[in-house]
Amino acid sequence: MKIADYSGVKANEEVSGVLMRVLIGAEEGAPNFVMRLFEVKSGCSTPFHTHNWEHEVFILSGQGKVKNEKEEETPITNGDFVFVAPNEKHCFINDGSDTLRFICLIPLVK
Amino acid sequence: MKIADYSGVKANEEVSGVLMRVLIGAEEGAPNFVMRLFEVKSGCSTPFHTHNWEHEVFILSGQGKVKNEKEEETPITNGDFVFVAPNEKHCFINDGSDTLRFICLIPLVK
C-alpha cells in the first residue's frame, strides 16, 4: 500500500504551462493502469493530439474546456469526468483565472 | 467522448452509508479500467476485505483513515492518493464529520 499527498510528488513540465505528476504507476507496482495529476495554468492548454489509448479524467478544480476531434469545445469544472476513447483527438484548455487541475488515467505500457 | 457531472450519475448503496457511482466503464466503451466515485457517510466504512485486483484511489474531500492488512490506520484527506495492491486487505473509514469522497479505479473485467 502507498498513501501520500500528491503535492509531494515531483512534477515535470510536459509543455509550457502544463505540469504533470505520476502518482501511481509501475514504480508503485501498479499492474494495469497509471494515475497522473495535471495542473494547467491559466491561459494554457494540453496539446491538441491523438493516440491509441484512452483517458479517464476527473476534474478537481478550476474552469476550462475540452476540445473534441470536431473542434467543438465543452466547459468542464470541478466534479466533471471525461472519457476520451482511443484515437479520439482532444485537448484540455484552461480559460479560467485559476489553475485547472485534473486526474488523468492511462493504461500501463508493459 | 463523454463529459458529465458525477452527481448526475445514478448511485447504488454498496453497504450501509457507502454510495458508489460508476462514472466510466464498459457502457462508455472503456477498454481497460473503470472509474468509480465513492461517498462514505460520517461514521461509516467500506468493508475490510481483500480481492485479487488493485485500487487506485484519489481523495476528493472529507477526513478518514485507510486500514491496511496489519490493521494499521493512516489518515487520509483531500489531495491524498492511495495504491492498494492486489490481495492486500484494506478499508476506507470516515471518522470525520463530513462525507468522505474519493475516486477509486479498478481493472475492467472482460
Q: How many β strands of chain A by DSSP?
A: 10
Describe the largest sheet of chain A: 6 strands, antiparallel
Q: Over all CA atoms, what is the radius of gyration of chain A?
A: 14 Å
Instruction: Work out the oligomeric state of the chains in this entry.
Output: homodimer
CATH class of chain A: Mainly Beta
| Sequence stretches where pLDDT stays below 50 over 5 or more residues of chain A | none
Helix content of chain A: under 10%
Shape of chain A: globular
The most extensive contact between chains is: A-B, 38 and 38 residues
Number of domains of chain A: 1
The CATH homologous superfamily of chain A is termed: Jelly Rolls
Main sheet strand line-up of chain A: 2-3-4-10-5-8
Helical segment tally of chain A?
0
Question: Would you list the SSEs of chain A in sequence order as H and E?
Answer: EEEEEEEEEE
CATH topology of chain A: the name is: Jelly Rolls
Structural class, from helix and strand content of chain A?
A: mainly beta
CATH architectural designation of chain A: Sandwich
* Mean pLDDT score of chain A: 97
Describe the fold and architecture.
Two copies of one chain form a homodimer. With 110 residues, chain A is mainly beta. A six-stranded antiparallel sheet of chain A has the order 2-3-4-10-5-8, with no helix packed on it. The first copy, chain A, has a single domain (10-107), classed as Jelly Rolls, CATH 2.60.120. In chain A, a hairpin with an 8-residue loop joins strand 3 and strand 4. Chain A has strands at 2-5, 12-15, 18-24, 33-40, 55-61, 63-67, 73-77, 80-84, 91-93, 100-107. Chain A is 0% helix and 51% strand. The two termini of chain A are 21 Å apart. At the A-B interface, strand 1, strand 4, strand 5, strand 8 and strand 10 of A face strand 1, strand 4, strand 5, strand 8 and strand 10 of B. Strand 8 (80-84) of chain A pairs antiparallel with strand 1 (2-5) of chain B.
